[in-house]
């Protein structure tokens, strides 16, 4: 999904508010989770987030998410954000994180999700990369805050 960074979502430096970026990431992750599970999903957790570079007023935030792992009733989604200058096409990474969503049935109770299938080598490589990246991120957080 894309968002144009407008003044209501900026700080006094003309850069994206962290909360706005997290909001976009949560929505994107939920959409990926709902599409995968064919059910409503709710956010269960979000891993550590580092804001690598800012998104400036007038830039486009490109938010991409994909399911990389599943549990019985949960889906893990990697969400990446990059900033794009709409006039030049120049892009840069700004942040990424891992979310866990729980699928809910019509009564609002956790419900099973399908198993993740990666039919192509490219999809399997993307999944393995996300699993390893999350493992490293969690280890680094444990080491720092331990």
From TrEMBL:
| Keywords annotated in UniProt | Hydrolase
For molecular function, the Gene Ontology terms on record are:
long-chain fatty acyl-CoA hydrolase activity
Q: Which organism is it from?
A: Halorarum halophilum
Occurrences of domain HotDog ACOT-type (ranges): 1-107
Hydrolase among the record's keywords? yes
* One CC-aspect GO term: cytosol
* Gene Ontology BP, a term: fatty acid catabolic process
Q: List the Gene3D superfamilies hit by this protein, alphabetically.
A: Hotdog Thioesterase
SUPFAM superfamilies named among the record's database cross-references: Thioesterase/thiol ester dehydrase-isomerase
Q: Which InterPro entries match?
A: Cytosol_ACT, HOTDOG_ACOT, HotDog_dom_sf, Thioestr_dom
Name of the protein = Acyl-CoA thioesterase
Q: Name one Pfam family in it.
A: 4HBT
Q: Does the keyword Hydrolase apply?
A: yes
């Amino acid at each position: 999904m894309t968002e144009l960074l407008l003044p209501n979502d900026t700080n006094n430096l003309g850069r994206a508010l962290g909360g706005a970026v997290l909001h976009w990431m949560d929505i994107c992750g939920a959409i990926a989770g709902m599409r995968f599970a064919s059910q409503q999903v709710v956010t269960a957790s979000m891993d550590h987030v580092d804001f690598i570079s800012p998104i400036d007023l007038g830039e486009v935030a490109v938010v991409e998410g994909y399911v990389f792992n599943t549990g019985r009733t949960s889906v893990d989604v990697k969400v990446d954000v990059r900033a794009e200058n709409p006039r030049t096409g120049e892009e840069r990474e700004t942040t990424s994180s891992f979310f866990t969503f729980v699928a809910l049935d019509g009564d609002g109770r956790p419900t099973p999700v399908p198993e993740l299938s990666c039919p192509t080598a490219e999809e399997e490589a993307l999944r393995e990369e996300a699993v390893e990246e999350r493992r490293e991120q969690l280890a680094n957080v444990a080491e720092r805050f331990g």
